[in-house]
Amino acid sequence: MALITVSDLTFGYDSRKIVENLNFSVSSGDYLCIVGENGSGKTTLMKTLLHLKEPISGEILIGSGLKKNEIGYLPQHTAVQKDFPASVWEIVLSGCQGRCGLRPFYNKDDKNIALNNMERMGITSLASRSYRELSGGQQQRVLLARALCATRKLILLDEPVAGLDVKAASEMYKLIAELNNEGITIIMISHDIAAAAKYASHILHIGRTVFYGSTEEYLSSDIGCFFLSQQKGVS
Question: How far apart are CA 7 and CA 177, in angstroms?
Fold first, then answer.
């Protein structure tokens, strides 16, 4: 059974419909990249998948034993986040809050999970550093480690390389691909079709035209060819 099944979903904000009657599914091990024009509703869709926004109509079904508090989320990086005055350790450990239930404190298992994910992201040496003193690439690694503390199954990422230089962006894409190879299902918003084509197993394109299928199918479709040519023309 799919981890997430979206059936006849209409979503938007303030009762304004952005996309209507959307259908797609995400199975365990998939790497789905959501692409589309600016303002096409990619972030709104992700927030709807996370139940941070209510759908206007349709259904989002969660299967395969996945619980809502077992989904990791890395939102768009904002200026406020970049200046957050906590330590790296405090931020990563806070990703375990969903595991605490009614416990008012973190236990040994929570702390071990945080440590393991810091090691996975190569940021153990930064544990005592202030988050706002870090580079953009280091900050994104911290936030990814935090998101991983919430899940072993599924992680949603909204433009995880936005604002990063070429080297840091490449490293972030490789880290995400490694997580997928380890069995974590990925749903990622990206404006970079070339990177999506390199790493993703499936593409969801939303906007005036909607497409869902394998990466190979997307790249050979009219909308895929057009969108990729537009990006190449801008770069």
Answer: 27
**Rounded distance, CA 203 to CA 227, Å?**
12
pTM for the model stands at 0.90
The DSSP 8-state label assigned to residue 109 in this structure reads H
Residue 210 CB partners (closer than 8 Å, separation 6+): 19, 22, 204
Full set of structural domains in the chain with CATH: 1-66+156-235 (3.40.50.300), 77-152 (no CATH)
pLDDT tens column, 47-77: 999 989 999 999 999 987 787 777 899 998 7
CA distances from 163 to 79, 135, 160 (A): 11, 11, 9
> CB–CB of 231/195 below 8 Å?
no
The DSSP secondary-structure symbol of 87 reads: B
Task: Give just the sign of the alpha carbon dihedral 207, 212, 214, 216.
Answer: negative
DSSP assignments along 21-77, one per residue: EEEEEE-TT-EEEEEESTTSSHHHHHHHHTTSS--SEEEEEE-TT--GGGEEEE---
Amino acid at 130: S
Q: Could you give the CA distance from residue 142 to residue 170 in angstroms, rounded to a whole number?
A: 16
